[in-house]
């Protein structure tokens, strides 16, 4: 069983809300970033694209996309973006949050990005990895040995 039952998109949404709150509470901490809107939109767009492509790969493999039930996975997806990162959906969420942080331009939000990575790694990714290793055995261990967790 996973250590938490909070869907990762909800965790990301909470982090985005917290970043917005920080930026609103302490506007004096905002900094000027050249081309801030462009960078923010590019990162948010890249994150959304990565998430959509990653979800599509799961649908194509006819396996569960539900992050709260990785034990229901019917196949191991290792192609496409999964050749470069074992967790492209979470990477996509992180890129979206980085884009939001750039848009808000509050350096304090960098800490919230770190909290997102630490939380998702500890309470979602590591338990998922244990379940996938138990289910797919050597095939998953070999995949884990050649593809990094984040990037």
The secondary-structure class comes to: mainly alpha
What is the percent of helical residues?
55-70%
Using the CA coordinates, give the radius of gyration.
17 Å
Helix tally?
5
Number of strands: 0
The largest pleated sheet is described as:
none
**Nearest-integer average pLDDT:** 95
Shape: elongated
> What is the percentage of strand-forming residues?
under 5%
Uncertain spans = none
Order of helices and strands: HHHHH
Measure the end-to-end span: 25 Å
Structure description:
- It contains 5 helices and no strands.
- The chain has helices at 8-25, 36-60, 88-104, 109-136, 138-146.
- Helix 1 (8-25) runs parallel beside helix 3 (88-104), helix 1 (8-25) packs antiparallel against helix 4 (109-136) and helix 3 packs antiparallel against helix 4.
Primary descriptors:
151 residues, mainly alpha, 64% helix
Entry summary:
By secondary structure, the chain is mainly α. It contains five helices and no strands.
Indicate the topology:
Elements: H1 8-25, H2 36-60, H3 88-104, H4 109-136, H5 138-146
